[in-house]
Amino acid sequence: MTIKKTITGVILSGGKSTRMGRNKPFLEIEGLPIIKRTYALFEGIFDEVIIVTNQEELYSMFNTKISKDLFADAGVAGGLYTGLFFSSFQHSFCVGSDMPFLKEPLIEYLIRNIEGYDVVVPKTKDGLQPLHAVYSKNCIEPIRKMINDRRYRIIDFYKYVRTKIIDEVEFISLDPLRESFVNINTPEEFLNIKQREHHL
To answer: Could you give the 3-state DSSP secondary structure of residue 16?
Structure first.
């Protein structure tokens, strides 16, 4: 079976965008909203795409599964739980909705490492990148327990499942500038990216 048939692509779009003041997934980068960039990429890689959001009406233009958070106010951990819960496949590749520069070769590299693991997560010089990682359905119960304990940091459950950390020395050739892990949280960050666009 091909990668496309056996993995779900999950886009976590439940953030409140408080620091940005605007809905981050719909910010335009290179003429296209971030969410449309990610969705188009995922459609080409995965047979199933799930968008996890509490604003379902904003995503009605996408012909895909739209899932509402099963946990209220559990942040990214709740979104991850929801995406894995509704996934049709054992493994899902999960990203935030504010990451405009995802790279297909890097995604596929991570996926090729899933055999025997419940989490495959890249580690850069900035640390673990839990919102650019592969998760299995075996993570659902540990995430639920963590949320019930009012702990919401994703990496806290990694010790309870089979976790493979992939250091950037293994994948840096696929994304030398580490652009895959860029996310937009503030108007300043968005402005910096837009200015870079104009200089390309």
So the answer is: coil
Pairing outcome for strands 7-12 and 91-96: parallel
Instruction: Report pLDDT digits (tens) over 85-124.
Output: 999 999 999 999 999 999 999 999 999 999 999 999 999 9
**For the whole model, what pTM was predicted?**
0.91
Among candidates 56, 63, 4, which has minimal Cα distance to 25? 56
Contact 6, 90 (CB under 8 A): yes
> Domain of 24: which CATH number?
3.90.550.10
Domain enclosing residue 114, as ranges = 3-199
Distance CA 57, CA 24 (A): 16
Total structural domains within the chain: 1
Give the single-character DSSP code of 122.
Answer: E
Q: Where are the beta strands (DSSP E) in 77-149?
A: 91-96, 119-124, 127-128, 132-136
Could you tell me the end-to-end alpha-carbon distance of the chain, in angstroms, rounded to an integer?
Answer: 39
3-class DSSP state for residue 85? helix
Place of tokens 């559990």: 74
